[in-house]
Design a protein that fits this description.
Order of helices and strands: HH
Distance between the termini: 47 Å
Strand content: under 5%
Radius of gyration: 18 Å
Number of strands: 0
Helix content: over 70%
């Protein structure tokens, strides 16, 4: 799933990510379908972009006042 990097911290991070995704896929039956992960990634992207825009607006407004 993730590229192998020969660094102990990266390997541990990769292992934790795979464990996390594996546990999610094991507990949520819908996570085994191919449509689940693109939807999750898209929703997370939209939320992160929306949250980022709000932060930029707030910091911009605070910078003006």
């Amino acid at each position: 799933m993730f590229p192998l990097i020969h660094d102990s911290r990266s390997i541990r991070f990769q292992f934790e990510l795979e464990m996390c995704f594996g546990s999610v896929a094991a507990t949520v039956p819908f996570a085994r379908t191919t449509f689940f992960w693109p939807i999750v990634c898209w929703v997370l992207l939209v939320f992160s972009l929306g949250w980022g825009k709000q932060v930029i607006k707030k910091s911009f407004l605070h910078g003006l006042w």
